[in-house]
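Here we describe the complex-level prediction in full. Unlike the single-chain runs in Section 2.1, the two entities below were treated as one system.
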Amino acid sequence: MTGPALIDVEDLRIDLNLGSSRVAAVEGVSFHIDRGETFGLVGESGCGKSITALALIGLLRRPLSVGAGAIRFEGREIQNLPAVEQRTLRGNRIAMIFQEPMTALNPVSPVGRQIAEMFVLHGGKSWRDANRLAVEALASVRVPAPERRVKDYPHQLSGGMRQRVMIAIALACGPDLLIADEPTTALDVTVQAEIIELMRNLCAARGTAVLMISHDLGLVANFCRRVAVMYAGRIVEQRSSDDIFRACSHPYTQGLVDSLPRLGSRARLGRSRLREIAGVVPAITNFPSGCRFNPRCAQATEVCRTTAPETTMLGADGLVRCHHHA
Amino acid sequence: MKLGTSLIIGGLLFTLAIVVGLLAPWLAHTDPVMDANLMNAEEPPSWMWWFGTDAQGRDIYSRVVYGARISLTVGIVSQLVNSVIGVTLGLSAGYFGGWWDDIVNGLTNLMLAIPSLIFALAIMAVLGPGLTSLLIALGLTNWSFTCRIARASTLSLKSQGYVQAARVLGYGDLRIMITQLLPNMLGPIIVIGTLGMGSAVLAEASLSFLGLGIRPPYPSWGSMLSEARDQITTAPWLSVFPGLAIFLTVLGLNLLGDGLRDILDPQSRSRRT
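The structure predicted for the assembly as a whole is:
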Protein backbone atom coordinates (compact mmCIF):
# COMPACT_ATOMS: atom_id res chain seq x y z
CA MET A 1 0.00 0.00 0.00
CA THR A 2 1.36 3.40 -0.93
CA GLY A 3 0.36 6.64 0.73
CA PRO A 4 -2.42 7.06 3.26
CA ALA A 5 -5.64 5.06 3.04
CA LEU A 6 -8.66 6.78 1.51
CA ILE A 7 -10.37 6.81 4.83
CA ASP A 8 -8.81 5.82 8.10
CA VAL A 9 -10.80 5.55 11.32
CA GLU A 10 -8.71 5.23 14.43
CA ASP A 11 -9.99 4.34 17.87
CA LEU A 12 -13.31 6.11 17.27
CA ARG A 13 -15.58 6.65 20.21
CA ILE A 14 -19.10 8.06 19.82
CA ASP A 15 -20.73 9.37 22.96
CA LEU A 16 -24.41 9.43 23.71
CA ASN A 17 -25.13 12.32 26.05
CA LEU A 18 -28.04 11.59 28.31
CA GLY A 19 -28.08 14.87 30.17
CA SER A 20 -26.57 13.74 33.44
CA SER A 21 -24.52 10.83 32.19
CA ARG A 22 -22.59 9.93 29.06
CA VAL A 23 -22.30 6.48 27.55
CA ALA A 24 -20.14 5.32 24.68
CA ALA A 25 -22.42 4.03 21.93
CA VAL A 26 -19.39 3.13 19.81
CA GLU A 27 -15.96 2.49 21.26
CA GLY A 28 -12.50 1.68 19.98
CA VAL A 29 -13.58 1.31 16.37
CA SER A 30 -10.70 1.30 13.92
CA PHE A 31 -10.69 0.43 10.26
CA HIS A 32 -9.41 1.78 7.01
CA ILE A 33 -10.63 1.65 3.45
CA ASP A 34 -8.27 1.93 0.52
CA ARG A 35 -9.03 3.67 -2.73
CA GLY A 36 -11.48 1.59 -4.77
CA GLU A 37 -11.86 -1.00 -2.06
CA THR A 38 -15.12 -2.48 -0.81
CA PHE A 39 -15.53 -2.78 2.92
CA GLY A 40 -18.51 -4.11 4.84
CA LEU A 41 -19.76 -3.35 8.32
CA VAL A 42 -22.11 -5.99 9.66
CA GLY A 43 -24.08 -6.12 12.85
CA GLU A 44 -27.55 -6.28 14.26
CA SER A 45 -29.79 -3.27 14.89
CA GLY A 46 -28.36 -0.88 17.44
CA CYS A 47 -24.77 -2.12 17.30
CA GLY A 48 -23.59 1.31 16.14
CA LYS A 49 -22.89 0.70 12.47
CA SER A 50 -25.10 3.49 11.15
CA ILE A 51 -23.86 6.13 13.57
CA THR A 52 -20.31 5.16 12.65
CA ALA A 53 -21.21 6.04 9.05
CA LEU A 54 -22.80 9.31 10.12
CA ALA A 55 -19.62 10.16 12.03
CA LEU A 56 -17.60 9.61 8.84
CA ILE A 57 -19.58 12.27 6.99
CA GLY A 58 -19.69 14.59 9.99
CA LEU A 59 -23.43 14.46 10.48
CA LEU A 60 -23.75 13.22 14.05
CA ARG A 61 -26.38 15.31 15.78
CA ARG A 62 -27.12 15.83 19.42
CA PRO A 63 -27.26 13.81 21.63
CA LEU A 64 -24.54 11.94 19.72
CA SER A 65 -21.02 13.28 19.32
CA VAL A 66 -17.54 12.04 18.50
CA GLY A 67 -15.90 11.53 21.90
CA ALA A 68 -12.42 10.44 20.91
CA GLY A 69 -10.38 9.07 18.07
CA ALA A 70 -9.62 10.32 14.60
CA ILE A 71 -11.23 10.10 11.17
CA ARG A 72 -8.79 10.78 8.36
CA PHE A 73 -9.75 11.28 4.75
CA GLU A 74 -6.69 11.01 2.51
CA GLY A 75 -4.54 11.44 5.59
CA ARG A 76 -6.29 14.63 6.72
CA GLU A 77 -8.35 14.69 9.90
CA ILE A 78 -11.89 15.66 8.97
CA GLN A 79 -13.91 15.39 12.16
CA ASN A 80 -13.01 18.92 13.28
CA LEU A 81 -13.12 20.69 9.92
CA PRO A 82 -15.27 23.82 9.71
CA ALA A 83 -18.82 23.21 8.51
CA VAL A 84 -18.24 24.74 5.08
CA GLU A 85 -15.30 22.44 4.31
CA GLN A 86 -17.16 19.39 5.56
CA ARG A 87 -20.00 20.30 3.23
CA THR A 88 -17.74 20.37 0.19
CA LEU A 89 -16.59 16.85 1.11
CA ARG A 90 -20.13 15.59 1.43
CA GLY A 91 -21.78 14.69 -1.83
CA ASN A 92 -18.64 15.62 -3.72
CA ARG A 93 -15.96 13.27 -2.34
CA ILE A 94 -18.07 11.16 0.05
CA ALA A 95 -21.62 10.23 -0.93
CA MET A 96 -24.22 8.11 0.74
CA ILE A 97 -27.29 6.12 -0.19
CA PHE A 98 -29.98 5.08 2.21
CA GLN A 99 -32.15 2.21 3.19
CA GLU A 100 -35.43 3.90 2.29
CA PRO A 101 -35.55 4.91 -1.36
CA MET A 102 -39.21 5.76 -0.72
CA THR A 103 -38.43 8.71 1.48
CA ALA A 104 -34.92 9.73 0.45
CA LEU A 105 -36.15 11.64 -2.60
CA ASN A 106 -37.92 14.98 -2.43
CA PRO A 107 -41.55 14.23 -3.37
CA VAL A 108 -42.22 17.62 -4.98
CA SER A 109 -39.23 17.75 -7.28
CA PRO A 110 -38.72 15.82 -10.54
CA VAL A 111 -35.94 13.24 -10.18
CA GLY A 112 -33.96 14.73 -13.04
CA ARG A 113 -33.82 18.02 -11.23
CA GLN A 114 -32.63 16.32 -8.07
CA ILE A 115 -29.77 14.69 -9.97
CA ALA A 116 -28.98 17.89 -11.85
CA GLU A 117 -28.81 19.81 -8.60
CA MET A 118 -25.70 17.81 -7.64
CA PHE A 119 -23.89 18.96 -10.78
CA VAL A 120 -24.90 22.56 -10.08
CA LEU A 121 -24.04 22.37 -6.39
CA HIS A 122 -20.70 20.57 -6.54
CA GLY A 123 -19.71 20.70 -10.19
CA GLY A 124 -20.46 24.37 -10.74
CA LYS A 125 -22.31 23.52 -13.95
CA SER A 126 -25.08 25.59 -15.52
CA TRP A 127 -28.59 24.19 -15.24
CA ARG A 128 -28.65 23.47 -18.96
CA ASP A 129 -25.49 21.32 -18.79
CA ALA A 130 -26.62 19.78 -15.50
CA ASN A 131 -29.92 18.64 -17.00
CA ARG A 132 -28.09 17.00 -19.89
CA LEU A 133 -25.71 15.28 -17.45
CA ALA A 134 -28.70 14.13 -15.39
CA VAL A 135 -30.06 12.23 -18.39
CA GLU A 136 -26.65 10.59 -18.83
CA ALA A 137 -26.53 9.75 -15.13
CA LEU A 138 -29.94 8.11 -15.30
CA ALA A 139 -28.85 6.15 -18.34
CA SER A 140 -25.74 4.97 -16.49
CA VAL A 141 -27.86 3.42 -13.73
CA ARG A 142 -29.81 1.67 -16.50
CA VAL A 143 -33.11 3.44 -16.17
CA PRO A 144 -34.95 2.87 -19.44
CA ALA A 145 -35.95 5.95 -21.47
CA PRO A 146 -33.96 8.34 -19.25
CA GLU A 147 -34.87 11.45 -21.24
CA ARG A 148 -38.51 10.88 -20.29
CA ARG A 149 -37.86 9.60 -16.77
CA VAL A 150 -36.02 12.78 -15.71
CA LYS A 151 -39.37 14.58 -15.69
CA ASP A 152 -40.99 11.99 -13.41
CA TYR A 153 -41.68 12.63 -9.76
CA PRO A 154 -40.51 10.06 -7.20
CA HIS A 155 -44.01 8.69 -6.60
CA GLN A 156 -44.22 7.69 -10.26
CA LEU A 157 -41.23 5.35 -9.89
CA SER A 158 -40.98 1.90 -8.33
CA GLY A 159 -38.75 1.19 -5.31
CA GLY A 160 -35.99 -0.27 -7.44
CA MET A 161 -36.11 2.70 -9.84
CA ARG A 162 -35.92 5.13 -6.95
CA GLN A 163 -32.88 3.36 -5.54
CA ARG A 164 -31.30 3.62 -8.99
CA VAL A 165 -32.02 7.34 -8.94
CA MET A 166 -30.44 7.56 -5.47
CA ILE A 167 -27.35 5.81 -6.79
CA ALA A 168 -27.27 8.21 -9.75
CA ILE A 169 -27.44 11.17 -7.36
CA ALA A 170 -24.80 9.71 -5.06
CA LEU A 171 -22.40 8.91 -7.89
CA ALA A 172 -23.13 12.13 -9.83
CA CYS A 173 -19.99 13.94 -8.79
CA GLY A 174 -17.74 10.89 -8.94
CA PRO A 175 -17.14 10.54 -5.20
CA ASP A 176 -14.13 8.63 -3.87
CA LEU A 177 -16.17 6.91 -1.21
CA LEU A 178 -19.76 5.71 -1.34
CA ILE A 179 -21.42 4.83 1.94
CA ALA A 180 -24.33 2.46 1.40
CA ASP A 181 -26.47 2.11 4.51
CA GLU A 182 -28.64 -0.97 4.06
CA PRO A 183 -29.06 -0.09 0.37
CA THR A 184 -31.28 -3.03 -0.51
CA THR A 185 -33.14 -3.82 2.69
CA ALA A 186 -36.40 -2.24 1.53
CA LEU A 187 -36.35 -3.94 -1.86
CA ASP A 188 -37.54 -7.25 -3.28
CA VAL A 189 -34.92 -9.98 -3.50
CA THR A 190 -34.76 -9.92 -7.30
CA VAL A 191 -34.47 -6.13 -7.38
CA GLN A 192 -31.91 -6.40 -4.59
CA ALA A 193 -29.70 -8.54 -6.78
CA GLU A 194 -29.98 -6.06 -9.68
CA ILE A 195 -29.12 -3.10 -7.49
CA ILE A 196 -26.12 -4.87 -5.95
CA GLU A 197 -24.89 -5.84 -9.41
CA LEU A 198 -25.34 -2.25 -10.60
CA MET A 199 -23.43 -0.83 -7.64
CA ARG A 200 -20.66 -3.35 -8.11
CA ASN A 201 -20.23 -2.51 -11.79
CA LEU A 202 -20.48 1.26 -11.43
CA CYS A 203 -18.12 1.47 -8.48
CA ALA A 204 -15.60 -0.87 -10.06
CA ALA A 205 -15.68 1.13 -13.29
CA ARG A 206 -15.17 4.44 -11.53
CA GLY A 207 -12.80 3.26 -8.83
CA THR A 208 -15.18 4.31 -6.08
CA ALA A 209 -14.56 2.77 -2.68
CA VAL A 210 -17.65 1.46 -0.94
CA LEU A 211 -18.48 1.18 2.72
CA MET A 212 -21.46 -1.12 2.88
CA ILE A 213 -23.47 -1.28 6.06
CA SER A 214 -25.91 -4.12 6.53
CA HIS A 215 -27.24 -6.73 8.89
CA ASP A 216 -27.01 -9.25 6.06
CA LEU A 217 -23.69 -11.05 6.40
CA GLY A 218 -24.22 -13.02 3.20
CA LEU A 219 -24.85 -9.91 1.13
CA VAL A 220 -21.88 -8.04 2.54
CA ALA A 221 -19.49 -10.98 2.21
CA ASN A 222 -20.58 -11.32 -1.40
CA PHE A 223 -20.11 -7.64 -2.21
CA CYS A 224 -17.10 -6.60 -0.15
CA ARG A 225 -13.47 -7.59 -0.09
CA ARG A 226 -13.19 -7.18 3.68
CA VAL A 227 -15.83 -7.44 6.38
CA ALA A 228 -15.93 -6.14 9.94
CA VAL A 229 -18.47 -7.51 12.39
CA MET A 230 -19.73 -5.10 15.02
CA TYR A 231 -21.35 -6.04 18.28
CA ALA A 232 -22.56 -3.62 20.97
CA GLY A 233 -20.48 -0.71 19.70
CA ARG A 234 -17.24 -2.58 19.11
CA ILE A 235 -15.71 -4.33 16.14
CA VAL A 236 -15.40 -7.90 17.30
CA GLU A 237 -13.88 -9.42 14.22
CA GLN A 238 -12.53 -8.32 10.89
CA ARG A 239 -11.68 -10.63 8.02
CA SER A 240 -11.40 -10.81 4.30
CA SER A 241 -14.77 -11.99 3.07
CA ASP A 242 -13.24 -15.15 1.66
CA ASP A 243 -12.27 -16.15 5.19
CA ILE A 244 -15.33 -15.06 7.13
CA PHE A 245 -17.34 -18.22 6.50
CA ARG A 246 -14.42 -20.62 6.59
CA ALA A 247 -12.27 -19.37 9.39
CA CYS A 248 -14.09 -16.97 11.66
CA SER A 249 -12.86 -17.06 15.24
CA HIS A 250 -15.24 -14.91 17.28
CA PRO A 251 -18.20 -16.79 18.77
CA TYR A 252 -20.56 -14.00 17.65
CA THR A 253 -19.42 -14.21 14.04
CA GLN A 254 -19.70 -17.97 14.26
CA GLY A 255 -23.26 -17.50 15.52
CA LEU A 256 -24.08 -15.19 12.61
CA VAL A 257 -22.64 -17.64 10.09
CA ASP A 258 -24.57 -20.52 11.66
CA SER A 259 -27.80 -18.56 11.58
CA LEU A 260 -27.64 -18.11 7.79
CA PRO A 261 -29.89 -20.54 5.94
CA ARG A 262 -27.99 -22.49 3.30
CA LEU A 263 -29.39 -24.41 0.39
CA GLY A 264 -29.25 -28.14 0.94
CA SER A 265 -27.86 -27.92 4.43
CA ARG A 266 -31.01 -29.20 6.03
CA ALA A 267 -31.00 -32.39 4.02
CA ARG A 268 -27.26 -32.84 4.38
CA LEU A 269 -27.06 -32.36 8.10
CA GLY A 270 -30.45 -33.74 8.93
CA ARG A 271 -31.15 -30.62 10.95
CA SER A 272 -34.56 -29.02 10.81
CA ARG A 273 -33.90 -25.80 12.71
CA LEU A 274 -31.57 -22.93 11.99
CA ARG A 275 -29.27 -22.20 14.87
CA GLU A 276 -29.80 -18.94 16.66
CA ILE A 277 -27.79 -16.80 19.04
CA ALA A 278 -29.45 -17.02 22.45
CA GLY A 279 -30.38 -13.85 24.30
CA VAL A 280 -30.75 -10.26 23.09
CA VAL A 281 -28.44 -7.33 22.43
CA PRO A 282 -27.65 -5.54 25.71
CA ALA A 283 -29.08 -2.06 26.19
CA ILE A 284 -26.68 0.74 25.38
CA THR A 285 -26.79 2.07 28.94
CA ASN A 286 -26.21 -1.37 30.41
CA PHE A 287 -23.33 -3.01 28.58
CA PRO A 288 -21.99 -5.99 30.53
CA SER A 289 -18.51 -5.72 32.01
CA GLY A 290 -15.65 -7.56 30.39
CA CYS A 291 -16.38 -8.85 26.92
CA ARG A 292 -19.71 -7.41 25.84
CA PHE A 293 -20.77 -10.68 24.27
CA ASN A 294 -20.14 -12.80 27.37
CA PRO A 295 -23.78 -13.20 28.58
CA ARG A 296 -24.72 -14.76 25.24
CA CYS A 297 -21.51 -16.65 24.61
CA ALA A 298 -21.33 -20.42 25.02
CA GLN A 299 -17.57 -20.34 25.50
CA ALA A 300 -17.53 -17.59 28.12
CA THR A 301 -15.23 -18.14 31.09
CA GLU A 302 -14.38 -16.09 34.18
CA VAL A 303 -11.90 -13.86 32.36
CA CYS A 304 -14.58 -12.91 29.80
CA ARG A 305 -16.79 -11.55 32.57
CA THR A 306 -14.14 -9.37 34.15
CA THR A 307 -11.71 -8.25 31.47
CA ALA A 308 -12.48 -6.74 28.08
CA PRO A 309 -10.44 -8.61 25.46
CA GLU A 310 -7.87 -6.70 23.42
CA THR A 311 -7.80 -6.95 19.65
CA THR A 312 -5.52 -9.57 18.20
CA MET A 313 -4.21 -9.11 14.70
CA LEU A 314 -4.66 -12.07 12.42
CA GLY A 315 -2.45 -11.62 9.40
CA ALA A 316 -2.75 -8.53 7.20
CA ASP A 317 -6.52 -8.30 6.90
CA GLY A 318 -7.89 -9.87 10.03
CA LEU A 319 -8.39 -9.05 13.66
CA VAL A 320 -10.46 -10.49 16.44
CA ARG A 321 -11.46 -9.30 19.88
CA CYS A 322 -11.85 -12.44 21.98
CA HIS A 323 -9.97 -14.18 24.81
CA HIS A 324 -10.54 -17.57 23.25
CA HIS A 325 -9.81 -17.01 19.59
CA ALA A 326 -8.47 -20.07 17.86
CA MET B 1 -70.57 19.80 -0.80
CA LYS B 2 -69.02 17.88 -3.63
CA LEU B 3 -65.28 18.16 -3.83
CA GLY B 4 -64.28 21.00 -6.10
CA THR B 5 -67.56 22.90 -6.01
CA SER B 6 -66.30 25.37 -3.43
CA LEU B 7 -63.07 25.66 -5.39
CA ILE B 8 -64.94 26.55 -8.58
CA ILE B 9 -67.39 29.00 -6.98
CA GLY B 10 -64.66 30.62 -4.90
CA GLY B 11 -62.33 30.78 -7.86
CA LEU B 12 -65.00 32.37 -10.04
CA LEU B 13 -65.88 35.00 -7.44
CA PHE B 14 -62.23 35.87 -6.85
CA THR B 15 -61.47 35.97 -10.57
CA LEU B 16 -64.53 38.18 -11.10
CA ALA B 17 -63.28 40.60 -8.43
CA ILE B 18 -59.82 40.71 -10.03
CA VAL B 19 -61.21 41.20 -13.55
CA VAL B 20 -63.50 43.98 -12.33
CA GLY B 21 -60.58 45.65 -10.57
CA LEU B 22 -58.30 45.38 -13.61
CA LEU B 23 -60.90 46.57 -16.09
CA ALA B 24 -62.31 49.27 -13.82
CA PRO B 25 -61.64 52.20 -16.23
CA TRP B 26 -63.59 50.42 -18.98
CA LEU B 27 -66.37 49.01 -16.83
CA ALA B 28 -67.12 52.20 -14.92
CA HIS B 29 -69.70 54.58 -16.34
CA THR B 30 -68.29 57.71 -14.78
CA ASP B 31 -65.20 58.85 -12.94
CA PRO B 32 -65.62 57.62 -9.35
CA VAL B 33 -64.30 60.77 -7.73
CA MET B 34 -64.74 63.71 -10.08
CA ASP B 35 -68.17 63.15 -11.61
CA ALA B 36 -70.23 64.57 -8.80
CA ASN B 37 -73.46 66.19 -9.85
CA LEU B 38 -75.86 67.43 -7.23
CA MET B 39 -78.63 67.45 -9.82
CA ASN B 40 -78.93 63.68 -9.57
CA ALA B 41 -78.05 63.13 -5.88
CA GLU B 42 -79.41 60.05 -4.11
CA GLU B 43 -81.06 58.53 -7.15
CA PRO B 44 -82.26 54.98 -6.46
CA PRO B 45 -80.99 52.16 -8.69
CA SER B 46 -82.34 52.41 -12.22
CA TRP B 47 -81.30 51.71 -15.83
CA MET B 48 -79.44 54.99 -15.77
CA TRP B 49 -77.76 54.45 -12.40
CA TRP B 50 -77.36 50.71 -11.91
CA PHE B 51 -76.54 50.89 -8.21
CA GLY B 52 -78.03 54.37 -7.62
CA THR B 53 -76.11 57.52 -6.73
CA ASP B 54 -74.84 58.97 -3.47
CA ALA B 55 -75.44 62.33 -1.77
CA GLN B 56 -72.99 64.04 -4.15
CA GLY B 57 -74.62 62.47 -7.18
CA ARG B 58 -71.69 60.09 -7.88
CA ASP B 59 -72.46 56.77 -9.57
CA ILE B 60 -72.29 53.99 -6.90
CA TYR B 61 -71.67 51.33 -9.56
CA SER B 62 -68.56 53.10 -10.80
CA ARG B 63 -67.34 53.62 -7.27
CA VAL B 64 -67.85 49.94 -6.36
CA VAL B 65 -65.97 48.91 -9.50
CA TYR B 66 -63.04 51.18 -8.67
CA GLY B 67 -63.23 50.12 -5.03
CA ALA B 68 -62.32 46.58 -6.11
CA ARG B 69 -58.86 47.86 -7.00
CA ILE B 70 -58.15 49.16 -3.54
CA SER B 71 -59.69 46.25 -1.66
CA LEU B 72 -57.86 43.63 -3.71
CA THR B 73 -54.56 45.51 -3.63
CA VAL B 74 -54.76 45.66 0.13
CA GLY B 75 -55.89 42.05 0.40
CA ILE B 76 -53.24 40.57 -1.88
CA VAL B 77 -50.25 42.76 -1.00
CA SER B 78 -50.71 42.73 2.75
CA GLN B 79 -51.23 38.96 2.76
CA LEU B 80 -48.11 38.49 0.64
CA VAL B 81 -46.15 40.50 3.18
CA ASN B 82 -47.67 38.39 5.96
CA SER B 83 -46.82 35.15 4.20
CA VAL B 84 -43.23 36.18 3.54
CA ILE B 85 -42.71 37.26 7.15
CA GLY B 86 -44.48 34.20 8.54
CA VAL B 87 -42.67 31.68 6.35
CA THR B 88 -39.26 33.27 6.89
CA LEU B 89 -39.62 33.33 10.65
CA GLY B 90 -41.38 29.98 11.01
CA LEU B 91 -39.08 28.09 8.64
CA SER B 92 -35.88 29.42 10.14
CA ALA B 93 -37.14 28.92 13.71
CA GLY B 94 -38.15 25.33 13.05
CA TYR B 95 -34.95 24.59 11.16
CA PHE B 96 -32.38 26.12 13.49
CA GLY B 97 -34.23 25.69 16.78
CA GLY B 98 -32.50 26.88 19.94
CA TRP B 99 -32.64 30.50 21.06
CA TRP B 100 -33.92 31.75 17.70
CA ASP B 101 -36.86 29.37 17.95
CA ASP B 102 -37.60 30.68 21.46
CA ILE B 103 -37.60 34.29 20.25
CA VAL B 104 -39.83 33.59 17.25
CA ASN B 105 -42.19 31.53 19.39
CA GLY B 106 -42.46 34.31 21.95
CA LEU B 107 -43.10 36.87 19.22
CA THR B 108 -45.78 34.67 17.64
CA ASN B 109 -47.54 34.17 20.93
CA LEU B 110 -47.38 37.90 21.54
CA MET B 111 -48.97 38.59 18.14
CA LEU B 112 -51.66 35.99 18.76
CA ALA B 113 -52.46 37.53 22.13
CA ILE B 114 -52.97 41.05 20.75
CA PRO B 115 -56.14 41.39 18.65
CA SER B 116 -54.71 42.07 15.21
CA LEU B 117 -57.25 44.75 14.30
CA ILE B 118 -56.42 46.71 17.47
CA PHE B 119 -52.74 46.39 16.65
CA ALA B 120 -53.38 47.55 13.09
CA LEU B 121 -55.38 50.48 14.50
CA ALA B 122 -52.42 51.45 16.65
CA ILE B 123 -50.04 51.31 13.68
CA MET B 124 -52.46 53.35 11.56
CA ALA B 125 -52.76 55.89 14.34
CA VAL B 126 -48.98 56.37 14.25
CA LEU B 127 -48.57 56.32 10.45
CA GLY B 128 -51.74 58.22 9.59
CA PRO B 129 -54.37 57.14 7.07
CA GLY B 130 -53.60 56.20 3.49
CA LEU B 131 -52.99 53.18 1.29
CA THR B 132 -49.31 52.72 2.18
CA SER B 133 -49.84 52.79 5.91
CA LEU B 134 -52.81 50.46 5.48
CA LEU B 135 -50.57 47.97 3.68
CA ILE B 136 -47.91 48.26 6.37
CA ALA B 137 -50.41 47.94 9.23
CA LEU B 138 -52.16 44.87 7.80
CA GLY B 139 -48.95 43.34 6.50
CA LEU B 140 -47.30 43.35 9.91
CA THR B 141 -50.14 42.06 12.02
CA ASN B 142 -51.37 38.80 10.51
CA TRP B 143 -48.33 36.57 10.04
CA SER B 144 -48.61 34.55 13.24
CA PHE B 145 -50.75 31.73 11.81
CA THR B 146 -48.53 31.36 8.77
CA CYS B 147 -45.52 31.35 11.07
CA ARG B 148 -46.99 28.62 13.25
CA ILE B 149 -47.83 26.45 10.25
CA ALA B 150 -44.41 26.96 8.67
CA ARG B 151 -42.64 26.11 11.91
CA ALA B 152 -44.74 23.00 12.54
CA SER B 153 -44.27 21.79 8.96
CA THR B 154 -40.52 22.36 9.21
CA LEU B 155 -40.29 20.34 12.40
CA SER B 156 -42.08 17.39 10.84
CA LEU B 157 -40.32 17.65 7.46
CA LYS B 158 -36.87 18.04 9.00
CA SER B 159 -36.73 14.37 9.95
CA GLN B 160 -37.82 13.19 6.48
CA GLY B 161 -35.39 11.02 4.62
CA TYR B 162 -34.90 13.43 1.73
CA VAL B 163 -33.98 16.29 4.02
CA GLN B 164 -31.39 14.08 5.72
CA ALA B 165 -30.27 12.92 2.28
CA ALA B 166 -29.84 16.51 1.12
CA ARG B 167 -27.63 17.19 4.12
CA VAL B 168 -25.56 14.11 3.35
CA LEU B 169 -25.21 15.26 -0.26
CA GLY B 170 -23.64 18.49 0.93
CA TYR B 171 -26.54 20.93 0.63
CA GLY B 172 -26.17 24.10 2.69
CA ASP B 173 -28.78 25.20 5.23
CA LEU B 174 -30.30 27.84 2.96
CA ARG B 175 -30.48 25.46 0.00
CA ILE B 176 -32.15 22.78 2.14
CA MET B 177 -34.70 25.31 3.37
CA ILE B 178 -35.52 26.62 -0.11
CA THR B 179 -35.37 23.49 -2.23
CA GLN B 180 -36.40 20.78 0.24
CA LEU B 181 -38.55 22.26 2.98
CA LEU B 182 -40.37 25.20 1.36
CA PRO B 183 -41.91 23.36 -1.64
CA ASN B 184 -43.17 20.61 0.66
CA MET B 185 -45.04 22.98 2.98
CA LEU B 186 -46.45 25.21 0.25
CA GLY B 187 -49.91 23.60 0.30
CA PRO B 188 -51.03 24.68 3.78
CA ILE B 189 -49.24 28.03 3.37
CA ILE B 190 -51.27 28.79 0.22
CA VAL B 191 -54.50 27.81 1.97
CA ILE B 192 -53.76 30.03 4.96
CA GLY B 193 -52.73 32.82 2.59
CA THR B 194 -56.00 32.66 0.65
CA LEU B 195 -58.07 32.70 3.81
CA GLY B 196 -55.87 35.51 5.15
CA MET B 197 -56.56 37.56 2.02
CA GLY B 198 -60.26 37.43 2.86
CA SER B 199 -59.67 38.69 6.36
CA ALA B 200 -57.37 41.42 5.02
CA VAL B 201 -60.16 42.64 2.72
CA LEU B 202 -62.46 42.71 5.76
CA ALA B 203 -59.84 44.46 7.88
CA GLU B 204 -59.37 47.10 5.19
CA ALA B 205 -63.11 47.68 5.15
CA SER B 206 -63.20 47.93 8.94
CA LEU B 207 -60.30 50.36 9.13
CA SER B 208 -61.68 52.48 6.32
CA PHE B 209 -65.08 52.42 7.98
CA LEU B 210 -63.43 53.77 11.10
CA GLY B 211 -61.90 56.53 9.01
CA LEU B 212 -58.33 55.25 9.35
CA GLY B 213 -57.93 53.53 6.01
CA ILE B 214 -58.67 55.00 2.63
CA ARG B 215 -60.07 58.48 3.01
CA PRO B 216 -62.98 59.95 1.08
CA PRO B 217 -63.41 60.87 -1.67
CA TYR B 218 -61.40 57.85 -2.90
CA PRO B 219 -63.66 54.84 -3.26
CA SER B 220 -62.88 51.93 -1.03
CA TRP B 221 -65.72 49.65 -0.04
CA GLY B 222 -65.12 50.33 3.64
CA SER B 223 -65.05 54.11 3.26
CA MET B 224 -68.19 54.00 1.10
CA LEU B 225 -69.97 52.11 3.87
CA SER B 226 -68.73 54.67 6.33
CA GLU B 227 -70.10 57.55 4.27
CA ALA B 228 -73.40 55.74 3.74
CA ARG B 229 -74.23 55.08 7.35
CA ASP B 230 -76.14 58.33 7.90
CA GLN B 231 -78.46 57.61 4.95
CA ILE B 232 -79.00 53.93 5.65
CA THR B 233 -82.75 54.46 6.16
CA THR B 234 -83.30 56.97 3.36
CA ALA B 235 -80.92 55.59 0.73
CA PRO B 236 -80.09 51.94 1.60
CA TRP B 237 -78.48 51.29 -1.82
CA LEU B 238 -75.54 53.39 -0.64
CA SER B 239 -74.57 50.67 1.84
CA VAL B 240 -76.05 47.59 0.20
CA PHE B 241 -73.82 47.49 -2.88
CA PRO B 242 -70.41 48.09 -1.30
CA GLY B 243 -71.45 45.66 1.45
CA LEU B 244 -72.43 43.07 -1.14
CA ALA B 245 -69.07 43.53 -2.87
CA ILE B 246 -67.20 42.92 0.37
CA PHE B 247 -69.40 39.95 1.15
CA LEU B 248 -68.94 38.29 -2.24
CA THR B 249 -65.18 38.87 -2.35
CA VAL B 250 -64.58 37.51 1.15
CA LEU B 251 -66.94 34.61 0.53
CA GLY B 252 -65.10 33.85 -2.70
CA LEU B 253 -61.71 33.90 -0.98
CA ASN B 254 -62.91 31.67 1.85
CA LEU B 255 -64.46 29.15 -0.54
CA LEU B 256 -61.29 29.22 -2.61
CA GLY B 257 -59.22 28.58 0.50
CA ASP B 258 -61.41 25.66 1.50
CA GLY B 259 -61.32 24.23 -2.00
CA LEU B 260 -57.54 24.53 -2.16
CA ARG B 261 -57.24 22.81 1.19
CA ASP B 262 -59.23 19.87 -0.15
CA ILE B 263 -56.80 19.55 -3.02
CA LEU B 264 -53.54 20.34 -1.28
CA ASP B 265 -54.05 18.62 2.08
CA PRO B 266 -52.25 15.28 1.81
CA GLN B 267 -54.72 13.66 4.18
CA SER B 268 -57.77 14.45 2.09
CA ARG B 269 -55.79 13.51 -0.99
CA SER B 270 -55.00 10.05 0.35
CA ARG B 271 -58.64 9.63 1.34
CA ARG B 272 -59.66 10.14 -2.24
CA THR B 273 -57.21 7.73 -3.84
